Target: DNA polymerase IV
Amino acid sequence: MEDFPVNRKIIHVDMDAFYASVEQLDNPELRGKAVAVGGGSERGVVSAASYEARKFGVRSAMAGGLARKLCPELIFVKTRFERYREISAQIREVFYEYTDLVEPLSLDEAYLDVTQNKKGNPSASLIAKEIRAKIKDKTGLNASAGISINKFIAKVASDINKPNGQKTIGPEEVIAFLEDLDIRKFYGVGKVTAEKMYQLGIFTGKDLKTKSIEFLNEKFGKSGAYYYHVVRGIHTSQVKPDRIRKSLGAERTFSENISSEIFMIERLENIAEEIERRMKKSDVAGKTVTLKIKYSDFTLKTRSKTLPYYIRSKEVILETARELLFQEKMENSVRLLGITLANLNTEERDQKVSEDKVIAVQLKFDF
Model:
C-alpha cells in the first residue's frame, strides 16, 4: 500500500438543501413540497432547491424558466440571506464547541479538524454524529458529514449518504475508496474536465492512478499535480480558521411574542446563564455586551456597552443587558432576544484578577 498521511481527523459538514430547508422550516406549508429559492422572475436563477424539487431535475444555478418547465408545481420563494446567516452562525457555534480549527466554505458547509478536540473524544465519527444531532436540535435542520484523513476525502465522503447521513473513510480504506470512485465524484473535477478525462480513458480513480504526473501536467496544466496526488490519498492542505473567535452569544426566538418586561428579563437571565456556561467552557471573557432585540414586525435593533473590565459571570452580563433593555422605550412586542459578549481576551494572557468581575484567562485549547 502506498504512503499517505494518516495523522489528521477531518470532518466536512454540509447542510442538506440549506436555503430551501430553512424556508420549509419557517413555513410549514412548504414542507414536503417542491421549493426553489430565488429564480422566480423571468431572468431569475435558482439559488437552491428542496429535495422534492431535485427529483424533477431542478438544481441550483438553473434558470427559473427551465426549473418551472421541469416541475410545473414548483413553488418559488425569495432569498432571505439575513435569515440564512443567522442560522449559519448558530451552526458554527456548535462547531466551536468541539474545535477552533473550523474553516467555513460558505454559509452551509465547513471543514473541522478534530484530531485534538475540546471534548477529548478520539472518534471523529462519533463527533460528527454529535454535531449533526446538535445542529438538528438547535436549528431543526439536517446536516450530512464526511470523515477522513484529509479535507479532499472528507469533502467527497460527505456527499455519499446525503441527505441526513454521514460516511467515514478510515486510513485503511482510502486507497480502495479512491480507486473505485467515479471521476465525476472527485472534488475539483467539473463537467468539462470530466468529459476530457473520459476522452483520455479515465473513468475512475484507478484509471487516473495509471497516468504519470508528467502526462497529467501536460493535459491539465497546474491541476495535473493535484489530480496525481489526491487519487493517492495525498492532500496536505490544513484546515484554516477564518478568524480568531471575537465574540460569543446566544439568543432565543419565542413561540409567542412577548411584551412584558418582566418576561423579557426572565428570558435574558436564561440567555446570560447560557453565555456564562459557554464562556467558562471556552475559557474566555469579554468586555462588550450587545443586546439584540427583534420585534414582532421583524425590525431588528441592537444596543451595546463596553465595560472597563473583562466579564463572564451571568450576574454582570444580565445586569448590563437589563440596562441596555431599559435604555430606550420598547417599540413593539418582541419575538427574539439575544446577548453577545465581544471584545474577548483571546489575545491577552495571564490577566490579573480583581474581585469576581475581572476574569483572568489563559487559553488552553487542545489542537
Observations:
- The radius of gyration is 24 Å.
- Residues 1-5, 349-367 have pLDDT under 50 and may be disordered.
- The first helix runs from residue 18 to 26.
